[in-house]
Amino acid sequence: ITEATGASNQIAVGAPSNPIMNITELNGEVVCLTTNNIYRVVAWNGVMQPPNETPAQRGVVGPGAWAKGDGAIWYVAFDGVYVWSGGASQRISDAIDWIFRDRAVNGIAPIARSTMSNICCEFFNNSFYMAYLDTGGANYQLVYDVEFRRWSRREVKVASTNKPITAMFVEKDTNIFMIGVQTSIVSSVFRVDRYGTQGWSDGSTTDDGLGGDSIAYSATTGFWTFGDPLTQKLFTDITLEYDLPENVNNTMRIDVYKDL
Hints:
Radius of gyration: 21 Å
Oligomer: single chain
Strand order of the largest sheet: 17-18-19-20-21
Low-confidence stretches: 202-215
Helix content: under 10%
Largest sheet: 5 strands, antiparallel
Distance between the termini: 40 Å
Protein backbone atom coordinates (compact mmCIF):
# COMPACT_ATOMS: atom_id res chain seq x y z
CA ILE A 1 0.00 0.00 0.00
CA THR A 2 1.50 3.31 -1.06
CA GLU A 3 0.60 6.90 -1.82
CA ALA A 4 2.35 6.67 -5.19
CA THR A 5 0.51 5.56 -8.32
CA GLY A 6 1.50 3.37 -11.25
CA ALA A 7 3.70 0.91 -9.34
CA SER A 8 3.10 -2.79 -9.93
CA ASN A 9 1.81 -5.07 -7.15
CA GLN A 10 0.79 -2.08 -5.09
CA ILE A 11 -2.45 -0.38 -4.13
CA ALA A 12 -2.50 3.42 -4.20
CA VAL A 13 -4.16 5.02 -1.16
CA GLY A 14 -4.37 8.78 -0.86
CA ALA A 15 -1.84 10.95 -2.67
CA PRO A 16 1.54 12.56 -1.98
CA SER A 17 -0.39 15.62 -0.78
CA ASN A 18 -2.50 13.35 1.47
CA PRO A 19 0.12 10.91 2.80
CA ILE A 20 -0.49 7.77 4.83
CA MET A 21 0.21 8.34 8.52
CA ASN A 22 -0.26 4.72 9.61
CA ILE A 23 -1.89 1.41 8.71
CA THR A 24 -3.82 -0.88 11.05
CA GLU A 25 -6.56 -3.51 11.10
CA LEU A 26 -10.15 -3.14 12.28
CA ASN A 27 -12.94 -5.71 11.98
CA GLY A 28 -10.87 -7.87 9.63
CA GLU A 29 -10.13 -5.04 7.18
CA VAL A 30 -7.01 -3.02 6.46
CA VAL A 31 -7.46 0.60 7.57
CA CYS A 32 -5.23 3.35 6.17
CA LEU A 33 -5.03 6.57 8.17
CA THR A 34 -4.05 9.56 6.03
CA THR A 35 -3.77 13.24 6.91
CA ASN A 36 -7.18 14.05 5.42
CA ASN A 37 -9.16 10.80 5.32
CA ILE A 38 -9.54 7.21 6.48
CA TYR A 39 -9.59 4.42 3.88
CA ARG A 40 -10.70 0.78 4.04
CA VAL A 41 -9.00 -1.91 1.97
CA VAL A 42 -10.90 -5.19 1.63
CA ALA A 43 -9.59 -8.54 0.35
CA TRP A 44 -11.93 -10.77 -1.66
CA ASN A 45 -10.78 -14.34 -2.35
CA GLY A 46 -7.26 -13.37 -1.42
CA VAL A 47 -7.18 -10.38 -3.78
CA MET A 48 -6.83 -6.85 -2.43
CA GLN A 49 -9.56 -4.57 -3.74
CA PRO A 50 -9.23 -0.83 -4.51
CA PRO A 51 -9.40 1.36 -1.40
CA ASN A 52 -12.70 2.81 -0.25
CA GLU A 53 -12.74 6.28 1.25
CA THR A 54 -14.85 6.25 4.41
CA PRO A 55 -17.21 9.03 5.56
CA ALA A 56 -14.68 10.06 8.22
CA GLN A 57 -14.61 13.86 8.28
CA ARG A 58 -10.97 14.18 9.32
CA GLY A 59 -7.59 12.48 9.04
CA VAL A 60 -4.74 11.97 11.48
CA VAL A 61 -2.10 14.62 12.27
CA GLY A 62 0.82 12.25 12.83
CA PRO A 63 2.05 8.64 12.73
CA GLY A 64 1.44 8.12 16.46
CA ALA A 65 -1.60 10.33 16.94
CA TRP A 66 -4.09 7.46 17.13
CA ALA A 67 -4.96 4.37 19.15
CA LYS A 68 -7.24 1.37 18.78
CA GLY A 69 -9.60 0.32 21.54
CA ASP A 70 -13.19 -0.63 22.37
CA GLY A 71 -13.82 -1.66 18.75
CA ALA A 72 -12.89 1.73 17.32
CA ILE A 73 -9.99 3.96 16.32
CA TRP A 74 -9.40 7.07 18.43
CA TYR A 75 -7.31 9.76 16.80
CA VAL A 76 -6.19 13.38 16.83
CA ALA A 77 -7.06 15.62 13.88
CA PHE A 78 -6.01 19.23 13.35
CA ASP A 79 -9.15 20.50 15.10
CA GLY A 80 -9.84 17.95 17.83
CA VAL A 81 -10.05 14.32 18.91
CA TYR A 82 -12.28 11.91 17.00
CA VAL A 83 -13.45 8.31 17.29
CA TRP A 84 -14.13 6.19 14.20
CA SER A 85 -15.62 2.69 13.91
CA GLY A 86 -16.36 2.43 10.19
CA GLY A 87 -18.72 5.26 9.28
CA ALA A 88 -18.56 8.96 10.06
CA SER A 89 -16.16 10.12 12.76
CA GLN A 90 -17.49 11.50 16.02
CA ARG A 91 -15.69 14.38 17.67
CA ILE A 92 -15.27 13.84 21.42
CA SER A 93 -13.23 16.94 22.32
CA ASP A 94 -15.92 19.64 22.29
CA ALA A 95 -15.43 20.23 26.04
CA ILE A 96 -11.77 21.18 25.42
CA ASP A 97 -12.19 22.63 21.94
CA TRP A 98 -10.23 25.78 22.82
CA ILE A 99 -7.04 23.72 23.27
CA PHE A 100 -7.10 23.12 19.50
CA ARG A 101 -8.06 26.75 18.70
CA ASP A 102 -4.91 28.54 19.87
CA ARG A 103 -6.70 29.90 22.94
CA ALA A 104 -5.64 29.82 26.58
CA VAL A 105 -8.40 29.27 29.17
CA ASN A 106 -7.95 29.58 32.94
CA GLY A 107 -4.20 29.64 32.54
CA ILE A 108 -4.10 26.42 30.47
CA ALA A 109 -2.14 26.95 27.26
CA PRO A 110 -3.28 25.43 23.94
CA ILE A 111 -1.48 22.78 21.91
CA ALA A 112 1.61 23.92 20.00
CA ARG A 113 0.28 23.38 16.49
CA SER A 114 3.73 23.18 14.92
CA THR A 115 4.43 20.01 16.96
CA MET A 116 1.11 18.20 16.47
CA SER A 117 2.75 15.61 14.20
CA ASN A 118 4.71 14.44 17.29
CA ILE A 119 1.57 13.65 19.32
CA CYS A 120 1.40 10.05 20.52
CA CYS A 121 -1.65 8.21 21.83
CA GLU A 122 -2.80 4.96 23.43
CA PHE A 123 -6.02 3.37 24.67
CA PHE A 124 -6.01 1.67 28.09
CA ASN A 125 -8.51 0.74 30.77
CA ASN A 126 -11.43 2.32 28.91
CA SER A 127 -9.56 5.62 28.52
CA PHE A 128 -7.88 7.38 25.61
CA TYR A 129 -4.47 8.92 26.33
CA MET A 130 -2.92 11.72 24.28
CA ALA A 131 0.51 13.27 24.92
CA TYR A 132 1.29 16.73 23.54
CA LEU A 133 3.41 19.87 23.91
CA ASP A 134 1.68 23.17 24.71
CA THR A 135 2.59 26.66 23.51
CA GLY A 136 4.36 27.34 26.80
CA GLY A 137 6.84 24.54 26.13
CA ALA A 138 5.39 22.16 28.76
CA ASN A 139 4.49 18.52 28.12
CA TYR A 140 1.05 17.26 29.14
CA GLN A 141 -1.15 14.22 28.80
CA LEU A 142 -4.87 14.52 28.09
CA VAL A 143 -6.98 11.57 29.26
CA TYR A 144 -10.54 10.91 28.08
CA ASP A 145 -12.63 8.58 30.22
CA VAL A 146 -14.97 6.83 27.79
CA GLU A 147 -17.52 5.70 30.40
CA PHE A 148 -17.98 9.10 32.06
CA ARG A 149 -17.10 11.24 29.00
CA ARG A 150 -14.73 13.42 30.98
CA TRP A 151 -11.34 14.91 30.20
CA SER A 152 -8.46 15.35 32.63
CA ARG A 153 -4.97 16.77 32.16
CA ARG A 154 -1.72 15.54 33.68
CA GLU A 155 1.72 17.05 33.60
CA VAL A 156 4.53 14.73 32.55
CA LYS A 157 7.45 14.87 34.98
CA VAL A 158 10.50 12.74 35.70
CA ALA A 159 12.44 13.67 38.84
CA SER A 160 10.34 16.88 39.07
CA THR A 161 11.36 17.91 35.53
CA ASN A 162 8.83 18.29 32.72
CA LYS A 163 9.64 15.78 29.97
CA PRO A 164 8.09 14.76 26.61
CA ILE A 165 6.39 11.39 26.17
CA THR A 166 7.91 9.63 23.16
CA ALA A 167 5.93 6.37 23.16
CA MET A 168 2.99 4.63 24.84
CA PHE A 169 2.26 0.90 24.72
CA VAL A 170 -0.12 -1.58 26.38
CA GLU A 171 1.39 -5.00 27.03
CA LYS A 172 -1.49 -7.38 26.32
CA ASP A 173 -0.15 -10.34 28.33
CA THR A 174 0.11 -8.44 31.62
CA ASN A 175 -2.32 -5.58 30.85
CA ILE A 176 0.35 -3.09 31.91
CA PHE A 177 0.36 0.38 30.33
CA MET A 178 3.91 1.59 29.68
CA ILE A 179 4.87 5.18 28.84
CA GLY A 180 8.35 6.03 27.56
CA VAL A 181 9.81 9.41 28.45
CA GLN A 182 13.09 10.57 26.96
CA THR A 183 15.55 11.77 29.61
CA SER A 184 18.84 12.74 27.98
CA ILE A 185 20.24 9.39 26.78
CA VAL A 186 17.96 6.87 28.52
CA SER A 187 14.21 6.60 28.95
CA SER A 188 12.09 6.37 32.07
CA VAL A 189 9.07 4.08 31.96
CA PHE A 190 5.71 4.84 33.54
CA ARG A 191 3.60 1.80 34.43
CA VAL A 192 -0.16 1.68 35.03
CA ASP A 193 -1.99 -1.47 36.13
CA ARG A 194 -5.61 -2.41 35.44
CA TYR A 195 -6.77 -0.81 38.69
CA GLY A 196 -5.48 2.62 37.66
CA THR A 197 -2.56 2.69 40.11
CA GLN A 198 0.40 4.40 38.46
CA GLY A 199 4.10 4.83 39.12
CA TRP A 200 7.43 5.71 37.52
CA SER A 201 10.25 3.26 37.08
CA ASP A 202 13.33 5.42 36.52
CA GLY A 203 15.65 3.79 34.00
CA SER A 204 18.38 6.39 34.44
CA THR A 205 20.34 4.11 36.79
CA THR A 206 21.73 0.62 36.37
CA ASP A 207 19.26 -2.31 36.44
CA ASP A 208 16.17 -0.11 36.34
CA GLY A 209 17.31 1.96 39.31
CA LEU A 210 18.11 -0.95 41.60
CA GLY A 211 21.79 -0.08 41.94
CA GLY A 212 21.24 1.82 45.19
CA ASP A 213 20.66 5.30 43.77
CA SER A 214 17.59 7.37 44.63
CA ILE A 215 14.53 6.80 42.46
CA ALA A 216 12.00 9.57 41.96
CA TYR A 217 8.50 8.11 41.83
CA SER A 218 4.85 9.05 41.92
CA ALA A 219 1.61 7.11 42.34
CA THR A 220 -1.96 7.93 41.35
CA THR A 221 -5.12 6.01 42.20
CA GLY A 222 -7.98 5.48 39.81
CA PHE A 223 -11.13 7.61 39.89
CA TRP A 224 -13.51 6.98 42.79
CA THR A 225 -17.17 7.37 41.85
CA PHE A 226 -18.80 5.15 44.51
CA GLY A 227 -21.28 3.97 41.89
CA ASP A 228 -22.77 7.43 41.31
CA PRO A 229 -20.38 9.63 39.30
CA LEU A 230 -22.83 12.50 38.70
CA THR A 231 -23.62 13.19 42.35
CA GLN A 232 -21.44 15.78 44.07
CA LYS A 233 -19.60 14.42 47.09
CA LEU A 234 -18.07 16.15 50.09
CA PHE A 235 -14.99 14.61 51.70
CA THR A 236 -13.78 15.84 55.07
CA ASP A 237 -10.85 13.43 55.54
CA ILE A 238 -8.38 11.72 53.24
CA THR A 239 -6.25 8.94 54.72
CA LEU A 240 -2.99 7.94 53.07
CA GLU A 241 -1.44 4.65 54.18
CA TYR A 242 1.83 3.26 52.86
CA ASP A 243 4.45 0.80 54.01
CA LEU A 244 8.08 1.52 53.08
CA PRO A 245 11.43 0.32 54.45
CA GLU A 246 13.19 2.25 57.20
CA ASN A 247 15.55 5.12 56.37
CA VAL A 248 13.59 6.00 53.24
CA ASN A 249 13.10 9.71 52.65
CA ASN A 250 9.67 10.36 51.16
CA THR A 251 7.89 13.62 50.46
CA MET A 252 4.17 12.94 50.12
CA ARG A 253 1.81 15.29 48.30
CA ILE A 254 -1.87 14.90 47.39
CA ASP A 255 -3.11 16.62 44.23
CA VAL A 256 -6.83 17.04 43.53
CA TYR A 257 -7.66 16.77 39.83
CA LYS A 258 -10.38 18.93 38.33
CA ASP A 259 -12.50 18.27 35.27
CA LEU A 260 -11.68 20.45 32.27
